[in-house]
Design goal:
mainly alpha; transmembrane helix; 4 helices; elongated; Nematode_rcpt-like_serp_H; two-stranded antiparallel ribbon
């Protein structure tokens, strides 16, 4: 099995970056609406976890924004390699963007365990 590059626009990095940028434009109002729903329409019975839900939503929105606009990563499989196409490519080194991505994703784990306690 071989993979042939035909040079079409659908195979280019420009199409990948443009499609992610368009998706981020569509996702921004949805994330803002989600914040509104969490803040205004959370039932009283869920008041204790309202902050956790909001924090998880904000971190997931940040990760979405980071992947679609800031870094726009391109992964090269099966090698553990890749490069970035985002707007911070021109400002920061690639290793720093990778570090920011791993740290951003690493925040999701501890937030999901906030408020969950082991029974004594």
């Amino acid at each position: 099995m071989s993979c042939n590059y035909r040079g079409s626009f659908l195979e280019s990095d420009e199409f990948y970056a443009t499609s992610l940028h368009i998706l981020s434009i569509l996702q921004a109002p949805i994330h803002i609406f989600g914040i509104y729903i969490i803040l205004k329409n959370t039932p009283k019975s869920m008041e204790k976890v309202k902050f956790s839900i909001l924090l998880l939503h904000l971190i997931c929105a940040w990760c979405d924004f980071f992947v679609s606009i800031i870094s726009t990563p391109v992964f090269l499989f099966p090698a553990s390699a890749g490069y970035v196409l985002g707007i911070l490519y021109y400002v920061m080194a690639t290793w720093l963007l990778c570090y920011m991505g791993f740290v951003s994703i690493g925040f999701v784990g501890p937030v999901t365990n906030v408020g969950i306690r082991e029974p004594l």
